[in-house]
């Protein structure tokens, strides 16, 4: 189609031995600004990003200085998560797979210093980390570390969420039905306010599946070289199952999402909101929550306003559309 996004194929990694690591280079955290920012209005929520261009890989930090109640919905067969608290002062998304979890430790140390190294129970800073496997689209073994996490936290500011190939989404890719068909995706975000109720959804899309718009069109991933067409993976799977060419889907995939609302919800409703929205993302990412994905959604409330005119289910329906917008933002 003439209005189809420009193709941006992700070159497969060689996975050669002796790849460059953090110990082999003098790494300096750099800003990771992406192609744009999505403005949002949620007091007490700050967002920062940083990257190592040598990777390339990066991390994204959401900082909640006053602490926020949180519910976590983790699905798929390859979840990379540290922490997992009910209360958070920070949530850290990072590349580097299991090695990138160090970035969250760096954020924790930085926050410790910000509370003057107080270790009283009430002063503890709760930081969770979640990672994507981004090695499939690069040839280095460089991973986000404590220094990069601290840099991202220091870069944090209110009201702006960087989107594009930045932060934890620096080398994210989608549509890995065959890696030669994969395309770079990134980090996306969307914000909506209705009647004083606010919803921010941000996501790092590094899925085995493709990104699909509301017309059912694949907009990123699974590009067939012979025609240049993007196809729904189910078409390839159906042909293979019927005796056609076998399909070797690539392992190492994760979509990380955070939903922040100012609506005050009971614990059960907060958890169910995350479940509802995470489930809805199957529309935008196909397939999703597979055995070779490790998808995580953090649902956060700043507890500022009550539900007005709708139930938690209605809020979930609205937030689900915001989540779809966020995924499409990551694919632009």
Explain how this protein is built:
With 332 residues, the protein is α+β, with helices and mostly antiparallel strands. A hairpin with a 5-residue loop joins strand 13 and strand 14. Helix 1 packs across helix 2. The strands form four sheets. Strands 2, 3, 4, 5, 6, 7, 11, 12, 15 and 17 form a ten-stranded mixed sheet that branches. The mean pLDDT is 96.
Summarize this entry quickly.
With 332 residues, this protein is α+β, with helices and mostly antiparallel strands. 20% of the residues lie in helices and 32% in strands. The strands form four sheets. Strands 2, 3, 4, 5, 6, 7, 11, 12, 15 and 17 form a ten-stranded mixed beta sheet that branches. The chain has a three-stranded antiparallel beta sheet with strand order 14-13-16, covered by helices on one side. The chain has a two-stranded antiparallel sheet with strand order 1-8.
Quick tags:
alpha+beta; about 325 residues; globular; about 30% strand; 5 helices; three-stranded antiparallel β-sheet
Approximately how much helix is present in the residues? 10-25%
- Summarize model confidence as the mean pLDDT: 96
Supply Rg: 19 Å
Q: Sheet with the most strands?
A: 10 strands, mixed
- What are the segments in which pLDDT stays under 50 over at least 5 consecutive residues? none
Topology:
Blueprint: E1 36-39, E2 46-52, E3 57-76, E4 81-82, E5 87-94, H1 102-114, E6 127-131, H2 146-154, E7 157-158, E8 160-163, E9 173-174, E10 183-184, E11 186-194, E12 197-206, E13 210-212, E14 218-220, H3 233-241, E15 254-263, H4 267-280, E16 285-286, E17 294-305, H5 312-331
Parallel strand pairs: 5-6, 15-17
Antiparallel strand pairs: 1-8, 2-3, 2-7, 3-5, 3-17, 4-6, 9-10, 11-12, 12-15, 13-14, 13-16
Helix pairs in contact: 1-2, 4-5
